[in-house]
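Ticket #4471: structure export looks truncated?
Reporter: QA, pipeline team
Priority: medium

Steps to reproduce: submit the single chain below to the structure queue and open the exported record.
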Amino acid sequence: MTQLKIFDINESFEKDLELAKFRNSSQVHLSLEVRWVKMIERTYGKKAKAVVGYEGEKVTYLSLGNFFHSSSFGRKVLICGAFLDYGAGIHLDHDDTFLHRHKIMESRHEKYLTKAIQLEAKGNFQSIAIMDLTLIDNEYPERFISSRARNDLKRSLKNEIVIEKDLKFFPDFYDMYKRKMKEFGTPHHELKFFENMFEDFSNEIRFSIAYVSNCPATASLDLQIGKNRYHLYSVSNSFAPNVGAGDFLFWDGVKSALIEGVEKYWLGRSVAGSGVEFFKRKWNPSFFGYLETVYTSNLRAGMPVALQVSPKSRLFVGVWKRIPDSVSNAMGPTIRRLIP
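Actual output as written to the record:
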């Protein structure tokens, strides 16, 4: 049985030989994860921790995260796999078609977490899309994608779309980002969050924004580590779909990833049957199941049986969508500091 232990992320943790062996035999980019959770800690003051699973002395599980208050559980939880929602911890003996995001309940009385329950979201199944760029012919890359994607790209070429990749254009991204988050009913990150990200990941940031007639249409923000590129954010204005700006920008990102020798392009998670999933499918990625797992020191009565949006959260989303922009812009970053 796997025994889980919580550690502070310090120099000795990062140099642990058993963790290094585990990292090299799994999908965990430990150095990148460490930098990510430390960036969250620096921005929001949420303590960065590591959860390590042992079978005897052998490391079989690793996940990094930050402590947040959770409205779902009414107490602190350690949000692990916070980096891009792809999951830092992966069981080596688990079917590799499933990736995990983990929420580790904070134990007030026990140092070690020994029991676990798995909660599979019902009626809201999500998946992660990954493009294997090694399958693309660099001379004829369009052959890899669907005919629908090729036709959408041809239509986008009829418009004068200009792509910029310098971070001096980031203010236009941030304006679109704030509006998009409000449409989702979610408070937005403060500007300092992105500034810290650019500082801590200066070599890994891949930013691009598309303009049509000098108006910002759509933009994306990725991180690239080694031969993997991870999609972080996509934002757009309402007219972007009509001019094909999203298709044009995405395909430009794929081509730039090919030039940089990227092998896997991680496109993030989406709800089955959603418009976001529909957009991803036409580029022919592989889709992987997405599970939520909660580990807790004891199975208390009243624990939820599925990770679903609570009535309180639904009420908040409805109200947040309706409040004036001036209020959401002023209050959003403050509220965001309190939630995962």
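Status: closed, not a bug. The export was complete when the record was re-opened. Leaving a note from the reviewer for reference: The mean pLDDT is 77.
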